[in-house]
Design a protein that fits this description.
By secondary structure, the protein is mainly α. It is 46% helix and 0% strand. α7 (104-115) crosses α8, α7 (104-115) crosses α9 (133-144) and α10 (160-171) packs across α14 (237-249). The protein is globular, with a radius of gyration of 21 Å.
């Protein structure tokens, strides 16, 4: 099993006894994901240091430290450490989502939610701490404009009945539970709607499942009324698995761009859509 584990373990990791003791590919994948998170945290820590410490110059202390470039590339350096140079995400881990091509308004809102404590993930909260709204909008605009190919991620093996349940919830909803179809808000092709509603297709299973679970347990939130928390609270664990698996396995439409603003009428009143004429 050591050779199997090596397939999933980053080459930069040392040959520790814990790696040799792993007996399943899932354990190896979990360790690889943790290693990627540690690399991201290290990048964030280095970026937070004053230039004199980050560069660790060997010259005398009297030498002037090089200035930090005032460029967009410098501003997104912490982002690309986890999300990729063009926001393509990391399908191999499943937990760092794609940012490329998402509506700019949605991306800016997520950064603000991390900043305000509505979304909880320590590396992201640290990254956006102290940044002003113009800075966040600039970062969001950069990733929204990126157009890069989509990559598939791993899927769990589920019975056909579970995938059928996922398709039902996504395309038709469940009126008995008060769950509207995902397509009512996220667009007929589930590619999102400008400027505030994200696409759902092309996202990894692990990420979709984790985010629905976070809304359900109130570790992810947004401005009230939080319609996603309301919907996720009406889903069972098996429903979340079914929805995440069906979305992650869906064939990508030819046009992955978000639909135009005003092309959907969400069935619930959502605080993030205030002022856009959306919601009932």
């Amino acid at each position: 099993m050591v050779s199997r584990c090596a397939e999933h373990t980053p080459a930069a990791l040392p040959d520790l006894p814990i790696l040799r003791s792993m007996k399943s590919p899932m354990a190896c994948l979990a360790h690889a994901a943790a290693a990627r998170i540690m690399r991201c945290l290290t990048a964030l820590a280095l970026l937070s240091l004053p230039p004199a410490f980050a560069a660790a110059p060997a010259a005398s202390s009297s030498a002037a430290a090089p200035p930090v470039p005032d460029t967009l590339q410098q501003r997104i350096a912490a982002c690309v450490a986890c999300h990729g140079a063009h926001g393509e995400g990391s399908p191999g881990s499943g937990f760092f989502p794609r940012l490329a091509g998402k509506p700019a308004g949605y991306l800016a809102r997520q950064l603000a939610d991390f900043q305000n404590g509505l979304r909880q993930y320590a590396p992201m909260e640290y990254t956006v701490r102290g940044l002003d709204a113009d800075y966040l909008r600039e970062i969001a605009g950069y990733f929204a404009a990126q157009q890069v190919p989509y990559a598939r991620s791993a899927l769990p093996i589920l019975p056909a009945q579970a995938l059928q349940r996922g398709e039902q919830l996504v395309t038709r909803g469940d009126a008995a539970r008060g769950v509207p179809a995902c397509s009512r808000c996220h667009g007929s092709q589930l590619t999102g709607v400008q400027p505030d509603i994200p696409g759902l297709v092309g996202l990894p299973y692990d990420y979709i499942s984790a985010q629905l679970g976070a809304w359900r347990t109130h570790t992810r939130a947004t401005v009230a009324p939080d319609c996603m928390a309301e919907v996720a609270g009406r889903l069972g664990e098996s429903d979340i698995t079914a929805v995440a698996a069906w979305l992650a396995s869906r064939e990508l439409p030819a046009d992955m761009h978000a639909q135009p603003a005003g092309s959907v009428q969400p069935p619930l009143h959502c605080g993030v859509l205030a002022g856009n004429g959306a919601g009932t």
